[in-house]
Design brief:
- By secondary structure, the chain is an all-beta fold.
- It folds into 2 domains: 8-20 and 345-451, C2 domain (Immunoglobulin-like), CATH 2.60.40.150; 30-338, YVTN repeat-like/Quinoprotein amine dehydrogenase (Methylamine Dehydrogenase, Chain H).
- It is 2% helix and 44% strand.
- A 5-stranded antiparallel beta sheet has the order 1-39-38-35-36, with no helix packed on it. A 4-stranded antiparallel beta sheet has the order 2-31-30-29, with no helix packed on it. Strands 3-4-5-6 form a 4-stranded antiparallel beta sheet, with no helix packed on it.
- The protein starts with 15 loop residues before the first strand and ends with a strand.
């Protein structure tokens, strides 16, 4: 047997555990027949019996309790951008093109009048008096702070609309009568903090992330989040309902998916993403090529692809009902649901000995022996199955990765040689082991910095 158990002293000091719960390799996504091939632009997974989604071509659908999908409304002349149902579930808003805002109330869809709801300026310090104006740009986002307070943003600079009567009437609170704006730039999404009518996040590709705690009565300060977004990027936001200071953004930016805790930001994905959703303690973002990423607590992420008949779908929308249940929609009109998104018990990885790395034949030989510790209540038959990825880096440059598997005792080991000038000259390497998870266990990892022996 390749692996040998080593007594307690062999557990080297200085090991950094990077464990995170989740269902990597174990999350399942079930396709739902929608009857449409139009891009799904927004999903509101509002309750176990209420899931609505909107398509770019002006259609709004609902999933019935029996699993079927029905058409709620069709607006053929409209292009839709966002959908939001108020907390009590009986009123909905839909953001559409050319200054159109759709509202569902009392079982009827209407177009909300935004006549003279804004001011005729573009944050350019016009000299008062500034006339009132009617929004004509595309509405990009809608959201609810409560059953009465709602928000909407448009493509035009600084144009942020607010309603205090459940979306019946609106007023621009972003543009001011002196020609200035609370946020000088295009705002593509709005995300209220749960339980507050005045605590709200706003984001734009160039205006950055802003948070107001007074309902935009004053100018909100800018916070870093995405970075290097193009002007026309549609950045989407989600706030962790369990932590108002944790907000996540997704878009076609350098940080395709990022999370901020109010003081610092972290990049969760290097891929361009389209949408993001959050429930307490859990974040999910989606993008092209079956890119579905999950994070618990905002510390690291894992890939949970739909695969199978949904392989390589370009996912454009996502929403979460709770930690277990989520829905994703694609550019081709596909809809998929999952009921096993939540965290699973974790394995903890322990090195048996310091990882051995030795220069050899114009490269470096790496040997890893390790063990995965079972959590309480789990048997080896349940836990000790699945792949482990071993990755070697020099500073931040990845030199190579190899895969091995857990044996029936949860041991794993591998030996391989990496070629190349960087490997041959390296004095220290970062070696990490990442368990990809299985149907019973979540993902976990451990890393170690080692000196390369001569």
């Amino acid at each position: 047997m390749l692996l040998r158990r080593v007594a307690g002293a062999a557990f080297a000091a200085g090991i950094v555990l990077l464990c995170s719960a989740g269902g990597a390799g174990a999350v399942t996504w079930k396709p739902v027949f929608t009857g449409t091939n139009e891009p799904i632009v927004a999903i509101d997974y509002h309750s176990p019996t209420q899931l609505w989604f909107a398509t770019r071509g002006g259609k709004i659908f609902a999933r019935q309790p029996d699993g079927s999908v029905v058409l709620l409304a069709s607006f053929p002349a409209r292009r839709l951008f966002d959908l939001a149902i108020r907390p009590s579930g009986d009123v909905a808003l839909v953001a559409a093109d050319n200054g159109q805002l759709l509202r569902f109330a009392g079982g009827v869809w209407t177009t909300v009048s935004l006549a003279n709801a804004s001011l005729e300026h573009f944050c350019n310090k016009k000299v008062p008096p500034i006339p009132r104006s009617t929004p004509t740009a595309n509405l990009l986002s809608v959201a609810w702070s409560s059953d009465n307070v709602a928000w909407a943003t448009t493509e035009d600079a600084g144009q942020i609309l607010k309603s205090v009567d459940a979306g019946a009437t609106w007023n621009d609170v972003g543009r001011l009568p002196d020609g200035s704006c609370r946020i000088d730039g295009r705002v593509t999404d709005v995300a209220p903090v749960a339980g507050s009518a005045t605590d709200v996040y706003f984001v734009g590709p160039l205006s950055g992330l802003r948070r107001t705690t007074d309902g935009l009565a004053t100018d909100p300060p800018e916070q870093g989040l995405m970075g290097e977004c193009s002007f026309d990027t549609l950045v989407r936001l989600a706030v962790d309902p369990g932590r108002g200071d944790r907000v996540s953004g997704a878009g076609a930016c350098y940080s395709g998916w990022a999370v901020s805790d109010g003081t610092s930001s972290a990049r969760l994905s290097e891929f361009f993403m389209s949408d993001v959703a959050a429930v307490p303690g859990e974040l999910i973002a989606v993008g092209d090529s079956d890119r579905i990423e999950q994070s618990f607590g905002g510390s690291g992420s894992q890939h949970i692809p739909a695969g199978g008949p949904l392989w390589l779908q370009s996912w454009t929308a996502v929403d979460l009902l709770d930690q277990q249940h989520g829905a994703i929609g694609s550019y081709s009109g596909a809809l998929a649901l999952s009921n096993d998104l939540g965290p699973r018990p974790k394995l903890y990885l322990r090195w048996y000995d310091t990882v051995i790395a030795r220069h050899r034949h114009h490269g470096v030989m790496v040997r890893v022996y390790a063990h995965a510790l079972l959590p309480a209540g789990m048997t080896e038959a349940q836990a000790c199955q699945g792949k482990v990825r071993i990755t070697v880096r020099h500073v931040r440059r990845r030199l190579g990765s190899r895969f091995t598997r857990l044996d029936p005792k949860c041991d794993f080991g591998i030996r391989f040689t990496l070629k190349g000038r960087t490997a041959a000259r390296a004095r220290r390497l970062n070696v990490s082991a990442f368990f990809l998870g299985n149907p019973q266990m979540g993902a976990a990892g451990a890393s170690q910095r080692v000196r390369v022996r001569r």
